[in-house]
Write a structure and sequence with these properties.
Layout: E1 7-15, E2 24-33, E3 38-42, H1 49-56, E4 64-69, E5 72-73, H2 79-85, E6 86-89, H3 101-112, H4 118-131, H5 147-160, E7 165-169, H6 177-192, E8 196-200, H7 204-210, E9 213-217, E10 223-227, H8 228-231, H9 234-241, E11 244-250, E12 253-259
Parallel strand pairs: 3-8, 3-9, 6-7, 7-8
Antiparallel strand pairs: 1-2, 1-4, 4-5, 9-10, 11-12
Helix pairs in contact: 3-4, 3-5, 4-5
The chain binds adenosine-5'-triphosphate.
Keywords: ATP-binding, Cell membrane, Membrane, Nucleotide-binding, Translocase, Transport
GO molecular function: ATP binding
Protein name: ABC transporter ATP-binding protein
Length: 265
């Protein structure tokens, strides 16, 4: 896999639904993301994590400011070129047609490299399904899969695109513990090869173990971005989510506990 390109946001403003009169989700975000970094996006429901991921994928237009990938604004990239640079794995899937898992993944491989033969796409699809422990699902109709199985197929499709920037919207929302751990390992290897990962997550402990950097949206347009240890603090998380968060530092690890029985900070 080739190395990811640097990604940057300059005074980025995003509104709900990308509409001119939509609520401001992100007021003026400056962000620098370097190849090999793993970012987690956090913030309350409706804060704008999915909207920001879609904007970074080039699928939602900023109200103001700009996003730059490599040396040109995102808006200047053609869809075909962009498909070679970034893969976007959404939070939900619509599967209206009877398509198999391997066809779904092979389709993603074909999007980024239209010259590939179907045999090559199928071999790559098989490899990516194996990486996500989903090879045994290859011939199944995606409409018949369980939530976790369908999510692993979607993640395999994102990997098959072989685009070095992975934009993942709640990638572990349907995964059991073992598959969460396996995905973390995969994403760490991805970034070790100079791929970049940006993932929206709600699980603070998973966020901590996954991330090198974090971006915390407050739901009112504000955002704090930086290295993980400085952003993921009890105070900042408590304020953003409106719950009491306590932190246990244990060697190099940090554990978060949410006190659901106490009033918000
Ligand atoms: N197409 C749309 N039209 C209008 N409003 C939208 C549209 N898409 C999203 N929104 C609104 O924008 C806000 C941000 O949504 P978004 O999905 O980005 O939040 P999120 O932080 O990912 O939330 P969650 O944690 O619940 O997944 C929400 O209030 C949502 O209702």
């Amino acid at each position: 896999m080739k190395a990811a390109l640097p990604l940057q946001c300059d005074a980025l403003q995003l509104r709900a639904g990308g509409a001119d009169d939509g609520r401001v989700l992100v007021a003026a975000l400056d962000l620098r993301v370097q190849p090999g970094e793993r970012w987690v996006l956090l913030g309350p429901n409706g804060a704008g994590k999915s909207t920001l991921l879609a904007a970074l994928a080039g699928l939602v237009q900023p109200a103001q400011g700009r996003i730059v990938l490599g040396d040109q604004p995102l808006a200047a990239w053609s869809p075909r070129e962009l498909a070679r640079e970034r893969a976007w794995c959404p939070q939900f899937w619509l599967d209206p047609f009877p398509v198999t898992a391997w066809e779904t993944v092979a389709g993603a491989a074909l999007v980024s490299q239209p010259g590939r033969s179907m045999a090559e796409c199928r071999a790559l699809a098989q490899q990516c399904l194996e990486q996500l422990d989903a090879a045994h699902l290859a011939d199944k109709d995606v409409r018949t899969l369980s939530g976790g199985e369908r999510q692993r197929v979607a993640l395999a499709a994102a990997c098959a695109q072989a685009a070095p920037l992975l934009l993942l919207d709640e990638p572990t929302s349907h995964l059991d513990w073992a598959h969460q751990a396996a995905l973390q390992g995969l994403l760490q290897r991805w970034s070790a090869e100079q791929g970049t990962v940006i993932a929206a997550v709600h699980d603070l402990n998973l966020a901590w173990t996954l991330a090198t950097h974090a971006l915390l949206l407050d739901g009112s347009g504000g955002a704090v971005a930086g290295v993980r240890d400085e952003v993921l603090t009890a105070q900042a998380l408590g304020q953003a989510y409106g719950v009491r968060v306590s932190v246990l530092d244990e060697g190099a690890a940090r554990w978060f506990r949410i006190d659901f029985g106490r009033e918000a900070v």
